[in-house]
Amino acid sequence: MKRLWSMNLVLLAIVLAGGYFLIWQDKQERAKKEQEEASRSLLSWPLSEVTGFRFRGEDRKTLQLAKKESAWQVVDPLQAKANAVAVDQLLNALKKPYDRLITRSAEQLADFGLDEKAIRVEVTDDKGRHEAIRVGGENTSGTSRYLLLEATGSVVLIAKQPLTPLLQKSDGLRDKSLLADLSMAGLQAIHLTRPSGELHLVHRDKEGWRMESPFQDATEESRLKGWLDMVLMASGTAFVPNTPPATVPYRLRLERPSAPAVEVVIWKEQDKVMAFRYGQPDALQMPSYFAEDMEKAPFDLLSLRVLSESKSLSHLKLEGADKSVEALRKSDGTWPDAAWASVEEALTRVAHKVETPGEIPSSAWKLQFQAGEESGSLTGWWDTDRIVLAPPGRPVHLALSPKQSTALQESLHHLIGLPAPPKEAPPAKTAETVKHPGIKE
What is the pTM of this model? Predict the structure, then answer.
């Protein structure tokens, strides 16, 4: 037994020693590989220490960028915000080690597409160090490109795919967002002039966002935010040196409580949508849908509720079909009859859509409500296949969805004897399939 234990200990020691050797060998291999890749680095110092660079793109224009408070900015030949994603991708492309050294001293750089017209990146740091790389042409197989390491004069070959962020125009490093620095929370007024009519919205502390033109009414904040986010997050596709024409179809003014207002004009040149933000150096070519967003229908921004969902109704009175009934909410929060809960939902839930006011029929019913100190009344009626509500003091009507309409009409039928909602027609019968006697299921 003692001898068996000794043999097990020897075997365990051999296994542990072998495992340690494999781990040590793996570390050595990785260290060797890292050292070998470091010898093929494009730069002689870490990219994390880069604080600025000059980039000459394939359009032969040069931009100078600098890192300011951890954010990249274009500083020459103009002052502008940089495209952070494009900058990171460009710098990350410089981390890739080259694949093969071609020559340490090329006499004819043009043979490799590395003359003075080549794409060029020159990086700098706050210690005064700087190194530059030029991107040349492809090799004969088209899988790699030649690079010139200006610090050593060496020409190297590197796989083409990782260099994609370098193969762009210099403007690709500029931020093409138009209004992304703004947010709905930081605005107090929106004023849009356009061919279809003026749109004016104002934010008030107690009331939230309200429409002031083309008519005065409450807005649905989620609908307004959805539209405004589309406008604020829109990005251009290209910079253009165009200046706005004397007359523009769209003018958007965004007012802020503690900063100057932002003004943008939008126009079309042939089939292209252009936008210019005052204070910026260039105009932007925008996606075609941006002009469509400027034509947002006012009805699409209005509130779909009669009352806020936070309102607590205490008293309801319903009049119609020569009958009048009313109800007080009980102390436990319920109503004397469950049908009143459906009536309450019609006041506080989101309706299906906003409609232009039409004629109110004589068969309409009237609902009076009390919510705290607030009271009011509305008129409603069945119209073809849904219920339409005329909220108090609003220039629009609200149409309920078929499901909402059916539930409310059933409650009205129960409470004051209005006609029951029409029943849905049963689905059309389809001809029965006759199976061939020889076919088994």
Answer: 0.75
